[in-house]
Design goal:
With 125 residues, the protein is mostly beta strands. It contains one helix and twelve strands, in the order αββββββββββββ. The longest helix has 5 residues. The structure holds FE2/S2 (inorganic) cluster. One of its GO terms (biological process) is nitrate assimilation.
Length: 125
């Protein structure tokens, strides 16, 4: 279990070495999430269409180690964009990965950029 979690490490924009071309913008649902695969990682990508913002995080919920966050409900806590796990509603900041309503470890988040109609997710390796 721990080994799976270790695959997911927070990546800041400054740490990006690879911009992975995930798919065309239209392939992603609006105001919801979708799952992409990069190497052996499952990454949840969220299109906050109302705010014209995109976020990415590990698909793995650290509560019961389920690959489900892409199916979570998105929203905001104040100014913080967040996702709620569809299983037991633990919520996480999509900016810092912090667990907002329990004491779970943070999830890894990844930078997203849109270029020429495509969605790119940034990885450090
Ligand atoms: S598995 Fe995500 S909150 Fe329980």
């Amino acid at each position: 279990m721990e080994a799976i979690l270790e695959q997911y490490k927070q990546v800041t924009e400054a740490q990006v070495k690879v911009w992975f071309k995930a798919a065309a913008v239209e392939a992603f649902p609006k105001n919801a999430g979708a799952c992409i695969k990069y190497r052996d990682k499952q990454i949840a990508v969220f299109n906050f269409a109302r705010k014209n913002k995109w976020y990415a995080c590990q698909n793995l919920c650290p509560h019961k180690m389920e690959m489900v966050l892409a199916r979570g409900l998105t929203g905001a806590e104040g100014d913080i964009p967040k996702v709620a796990c569809p299983l037991h509603k633990r919520t996480f900041s999509l900016e810092t990965g912090e667990n907002l309503n329990a004491d779970l470890p943070p999830i890894a988040t990844y930078p997203v950029k849109i270029q020429d109609g495509f969605v790119y997710v940034g990885f450090a390796e």
